[in-house]
Each structure stands twice: as C-alpha cells, then as structure tokens.
Amino acid sequence: MSNQTHSISRTSQAARVAGVLGALVLMVLIAAPWWAGRADMRLMGELFLYLALASLWNLMAGYAGLVSVGQQAYVGFGGYMLFALTIFGGLHPLYAIAGAGVLGALIAIPVATLIFRLRGAYFAIGTWVIAEVFRLSFAQISALGGGSGSSLPVGIVRSLASSRSGRESLAYWMALGAAVTAITVVYLLLRSRRGLALTAIRDNELAAGSLGIDIWRTKFVVYVVASGLTAMLGALIFLQKLRISPDAAFSVNDWTAFVIFIVVIGGIGTIEGPIIGTLIFFALRETLADLGTTYLIVLGIVAIVVMLKAPKGVWGFIVERYDMQLFPLRYRVKLNDQAKR
Amino acid sequence: MDWVNAIVQGTLLGGLYALFAAGLSLIFGVMRLVNIAHGDLIVLGAYLGLTVVMATGLHPLLALVFVVPTMAAIGYVLQRGILNKTLGDDILPPLLVTFGLSVILQNLFLEGYTADPQKMNAGVLETASVSVGGLSLGVLPLLTFAIAVAVIAGLQFIFYRTPLGRSFRAVSDNQEIAQLMGLNKRHIFGLAMALALAVTAIAGILLGIRTSFDPTAGGARLIYGFEAVIIGGLGNLWGTLIGGVILGVAQTVGAKIDPGWQLLAGHIAFLVVLAIRPNGLFPRVSG
Amino acid sequence: MPEPILSLNRLEAHYGDFQALYGVDLEMHEGEVLAIIGANGAGKTTLLRSVSGLMSNAAAQVVYCGTPIGALRADEIAALGIALVPEGRQLFPSLSVEENLLIGGRLNREGPWSLSAVFELFPVLKERRAYPSTALSGGQQQMVAIGRALMSNPDLILFDEISLGLAPVIIKSIYDALPGIVGDGMSAVIVEQDISKALSVSDRVYCLMEGRVSLEGPSANISREAISRAYFGVA
Lengths: 341, 287, 235
Ligand SMILES: Nc1ncnc2c1ncn2[C@@H]1O[C@H](COP(=O)(O)OP(=O)(O)O)[C@@H](O)[C@H]1O
Ligand SMILES: [Mg+2]
Known about the structure:
The complex is a heterotrimer of chains A (341), B (287) and C (235).
Chain A: E1 5-9, H1 13-30, H2 32-35, H3 38-63, H4 72-87, H5 93-115, H6 120-140, E2 150-151, H7 154-158, H8 164-191, H9 193-203, H10 205-210, H11 215-241, E3 243-244, H12 246-249, H13 252-266, H14 272-288, H15 293-309, H16 313-322, E4 332-336
Antiparallel strand pairs in A: 1-4, 2-3
Chain B: H1 2-31, H2 38-56, H3 60-81, H4 92-113, E1 129-132, E2 135-138, H5 139-161, H6 163-173, H7 175-180, H8 185-210, H9 218-232, H10 237-257, H11 262-276
Helix pairs in contact in B: 1-5, 1-8, 1-9, 1-10, 2-3, 2-4, 2-8, 2-9, 3-8, 5-6, 6-8, 9-10, 9-11, 10-11
Chain C: E1 6-15, E2 18-28, E3 33-38, H1 44-52, E4 62-64, E5 67-68, H2 74-80, E6 82-85, H3 97-104, H4 115-121, H5 123-127, H6 138-150, E7 156-160, H7 168-182, E8 187-191, H8 195-201, E9 204-209, E10 212-218, H9 224-232
Parallel strand pairs in C: 3-8, 3-9, 6-7, 7-8
Antiparallel strand pairs in C: 1-2, 1-4, 4-5, 9-10
Helix pairs in contact in C: 3-6, 6-7
Bound molecules: adenosine-5'-diphosphate and magnesium ion.
C-alpha cells in the first residue's frame, strides 16, 4: 500500500459521458426548426426559458442563500424595458434585450443594498415588496399602457425577421441560447473563486464568514448578475408574447411559484436539479394541465412532500443512489492504487 | 381638514394591518418561522366567515364564534402535521413549504368559491358613522381599530402574564432547555400557531366586511402585515400596531395625492424605514 | 438488592460522525449521590445529556426505575422525575428570576420543593425575584438554575459542573446547600472538575476517559493514584 498516490480531479466518467451526450443533444436541439413542428417548438422555447429562470433562481437560493419570491420584479422589468427601448428608444429588439439585461442589473444594485438588510425569510418577503413596487410603478406609466398594458408594434416585430417562421425559429434559438447561457454562467460562476466562496456559504455561512469570505459582496454579485440575466429573460419572454401588462409581467405565480417548484422538485443547490425539474414540470403540465386548479394543488403538494421527504429533490436522490455528477464541480480524491499492479 | 381626515382614516386602517401583522409577529417571536401562506390564511378566515354567514344567516361578527376556534384548530394541526417538520437551522424548508401551502390554498379557494370577488354583508355597521370634531368616522373602522388594540393588549397579556406566555418565551429563548422543563416544543409551537390563526380569523372577518376579497387576495395581506412588522420592529407587538398605522396613513395620504399612489405610497414608506432604520422603529429582538 | 434507579447499559452517543461515548455501563441506587469526574472532553456532559433525553439513544441503553427511557424525548423524561442543571446555567434570558423558577415547576410534581422552599434555600433570590435573570451575578444565576431544577421535585437530579467559573466563596456556599437538597432521599449525579470536592460530596465515583469508564468505586476509599491514572490515562 506504500506506493499509493492520490490525484485530485474534478471530472469523472459520468461527467465526460454527459459532456459528449450534452453536446449531441444540443446540436439536435439547435436543428429543431428543421425537424420539429410549430407547436413543439413553441413548447420547447418556453421550456428553455423556464430552465433559464430556474437555473438563475437556483443560483441565488441554492448557493447564495438568497431565497427570493420576487424575481418576477426582473422578469417584468425586462419585459417593460424591451417595450420601452424598442418603442421609444428605437432600438432593434436584440439590442433592447441586451439593454434590458444591463438596466436590470443596474436597478438590482440599489434594490440589493436595501433589501439585503432583511435577513433570511424576511428577505424573501422583501423581494416580493420590490416586485409589487415595480408592478404598481409600471401601472402608473401611461405611455406604456398603464394598468391595462400595451402591444409591441408590428414594425418592431417585423424588424426581427420578415417571415413568421423565421421569427419563430429565431425566438426558439434565443430561448435555447438563454438556457445554455444561464447554465453556463452558473457553472462558470461556481467554478470561479467566488464559486468556491458560494459553496462554502451554502454549506456553512458562519464558518465561511470566519474564513474571511466576504459574504455580503459574494451574495451581492450573485443577486445583481442573476437579476440582470432574469431581466434579459423577461425581455425574451415578452418578445414572444408580444403583449405586456403589469399583472402578466409581474405575476408571482408564473415567474416565481413555478420556478420554485421546478427547482425544489428537481433538486436545489445543484446545476442538474433545475434541468430535471423543468422536464418534470413540463411533463406534469402537459398531462395534468386540463385539471386546472387541481393541477396547481397537486404541484404544491408534490413540492411540499419533496421538501419534507427528499429535500435534495429528484437529482439529490439520484446522486445519493449512484454518486453521479454531470457538471464537474466537486473535487474528488482518487486513489491511484499502484500497489495492485 | 381633508388631510386630517386622511390621516385619521389611515390610522384606523392601520388597525386592520396590525391585525394582519400580529399573527405573523407572534409565530416569528416564538419559533422564528416566517409563514408565506399567512396572507392566504387571512383570506381563509374570510371565506370561512362567508360560509358560516351563508349557511346560518348570522351576522359576520357573530360568525367569529365559529371561525376563531376553527382557525385555531387548523393552526394547531397545520403546525404539528407539517410545519414542525420544517423547523431547524435551514431557512429553506419553512419558506418553501409555506410557499407551496400558499399556492395550494389559493387554488382551493378557486375551486370552492370561484374567482369572483366576495364580500360579507354586515348591514348597518358598514355605513354607520359618528361625527367627531367635524370628522365623520365610520363605526366599522373604529371598531376594527378598537379590536386591534384589544387583540394586541390581549396577546401582550398572554405573552408576559400567563404560564402559556412564559412557555412561549422559554421555548423561544432556548428550545433545548425548555424541553428539560417538560415543555414539548412541538405542542407549544402548535399552540402558538393556533393562537396566531385565531387572531388571523379575526383579521380575515374584518377584512371580508370591509372590502371584497378573492382567492388571490392573500399576497397583498401578507405584504402589509410584513411591512407593519418590520416598520414597528421585530418582536414588538405594540410596535407592530404603530407600524400598521404608519402603513395605513401612508396609503390614505398617498391616495389623497393620487388614487393610483395609494398602495405604492405604503410600500415606499416601508422602504424608507428600511433604508434609515433597518431594524424598524422599535426593535426588540434581533433576528 | 432493590432495583437501581438508573442504569446505563453499553451507552453510546454520537455527534454526527464523532463518537463521544463508547459503551458506558453505570448503575446507581435510590438516595445515592454519584460523582462523575474526567478530563475536559471525556464525555461527562454527553452522558448527562443522554440521561436527560437531550440526546437520543437506543431505548434500552438508559433504564430509569426499570423503564427503558433512552429513546424518550427530554420533556417526557422530565415528567418522569429527572432534572438537569445544565452546564453553563442556561437560564431563560427573557424570563425573570421568579419566572425561571416557576417554569421549572410547571410539571407540578409532588414534593417538598416550591417557590418558597427555593427562596428559603437561596434567600438572595427572593430579593431579586423580579429581576431579569441576566441581571444576576454568576453565582446567583447558578442558584436559579439549581432552584429551577428542584422546582420539578425530581427523584433524580443531575448537576453539570455547577462550580464552573464561580469564585471559591460562592462555590462553597452552593456546595453547603447540597446536603439540604439531596438529604431527603433525592438521588443525584454530580459532574465536577474539582476532584476532592466531588469525592467529598458523593457516595461513589465514576471516572470517564475518552468516552469510556476508566474507574469506578466508593468515594471514601479510592486512591489518588488510581484516580490520576484513570483521569489522565498514565501510570
Ligand atoms: N455538539 C457537539 N458536536 C460535536 N462534538 C461534540 C459536541 N459536544 C461535545 N462534543 C465532543 O464530544 C466529546 C465529549 O464532550 P463532552 O461530553 O462535552 O465532554 P465533557 O463534558 O466531559 O467535557 C468531546 O470530544 C467534544 O469535543
Ligand atoms: Mg462538560
């Protein structure tokens, strides 16, 4: 046993296989406009947007301990910025989406300074207050249709692509791109130095603080980045909807409740969780949506049961069973057992 | 005079907000639980009241005789059956479970009572008013405010003058040592939630008499209650009443400036307090 | 031989992955005063926590008056008549002195102890009854902690380092009160760092070392060498 050596690595067999498979799946998905029908593409587009929202919410709640029930503030803000920047700013929608992201991140800065004064669960409700303030404020802006909202002018929609199918493909690719971007940003952030700090905070905030990790700054960065990206997603979402109103833009059910259920069911605090959760959520929705309110009751019950019985969600269950990780984040110590020869 | 009127009306409205807040404040004080479904439970109180009124023809205030014990029982069962399982160092489980509960409740209301706004009819009480120094004050808002003061005085008495309150404070101080005194913390938490929902029942009925409500009305009520708690300072019941009053006055004064500003003005008052006094105006516990 | 009031049978205790007690056997009879000594970290507090139910164990590992109680909750065990004076006093800061005592008596068990009996034992507490418990000196706080445990009229009382951090005069006055407490047949377990103090007040002594019993015997005739061997693990 004496000539045993260790090697420390992040990758694993499963992760390499997943990487290859992921690339293949991504290529198939990029090609969807050539193989999928119009309705399927719409559904998949929506799925990707939810996946992106869920990944960002998971970054905040699952890693930075920032449990927000108010991310609809940024979805709605981004949506409204798309309308404002294209209608009044004359920007091309694509630039307007980027602009919405930047503005979303900018407004998140003063918001964070304020609501970071609320701790734990009170922070959550504070985020909701902010979303309400946003909703009520936009309802006051008559140029954007006030309380009843407004539609995106046809000219702006046309500027995206002249044909309907062209627009639909573009919208699909943007949604796919958004999901890939969100997951990549989360992944890279978690691999960075700040990511290590985040993992430390998630595991033990007190200990992380005593190790000299600047918890406030780390959380602040996460909040601002996640909010800016969420605002971009909001712009994308309402570019597809073509109509915006305060109630739709700042809906706590659509943009937060569903997202929370996705993350909780899939597995909070893992990159894979939101992916699994989104798939489960859409599968449930497509099969049970006819039940209307019953479907939402079932969803709520499932989320509560998961939280109580399997707090790490479906992905946590799989990991525990098979010790698997698709996005290599953890370091593993491997024993290179040369003694065996 | 108009402004004085707005301030007085806002003060009275603050009584209702303090009732929204009292239950929230109580359960946070005893078990550090923040209940996202609190607003929906207020609305549940209103729907239960409506059901009793429709079934029996009783006056809504008399319906309290049924609704208060029912809500207290629901609180006890909810706490022991579900919420106790979420308590611990991690804030996620209680938050997410009560969030799920909120969604479930809202959809149950939709199934049971449709999305149409409902209201309870309290007869002459709704329109009766007295005139005080040139101001015309509604009897219902006055009654609401008086009930709020009485409820908070009652909670204060229970908390600081009775064996039950002593147990609440002991468990809140140190759960482990409290168990050594023979206190079963699960039971104590159940009692605290029962008491909180008894208050919530009163809040719900007064809400349902004052305005119409629908299945989604809970979110805003949670937020008002929460804002009153934070403005007043965590863990301070009288502070909560003052918080409610500040919120109510901000809303009525805001509405006076521009009707669209009513709710916004309340939130802005909250954010201003948060900016300059993050621990509220009269903090008691740091939490 | 009557049934023991307390017996520990191969008691084990864990904090997560860390094992703090390794198969501790112990037996005590009614009216006995038992001392438990041992170095810091030996597992004394863990043992008392297991008996009082703050740590849960397999049911049969802790047997009280013939009833297996290892798996019961702390509040259930308290109701059976076991009280703990915890290490570091641990009074309720938002309760007054009197309320701290009253909450100790909320189980309403029959017996000699009442608010007035505690005030008779520690007269200074009567003067300060309305003070917040945090406003007392360390020694007075310890008196409240002892009084709080007595208020439940326990049959078995567990003291965890009641002299810790107190001035010698105060320690003396507290230990002077001890015979009045355990005099009427109450059984007691006393965890104490001061070995000679522990030996002088107890009938029998157990020494713990790294989670195991390293010595056991009557307090009156146990040799100093045996103790230092059991305490430090060296000859
Ligand atoms: N909460 C805890 N978590 C982890 N380890 C603990 C905890 N409490 C005590 N220990 C460990 O258990 C062992 C026994 O501790 P304790 O029973 O407090 O010893 P004693 O009271 O004899 O000083 C020690 O090694 C201590 O570090
Ligand atoms: Mg100890």
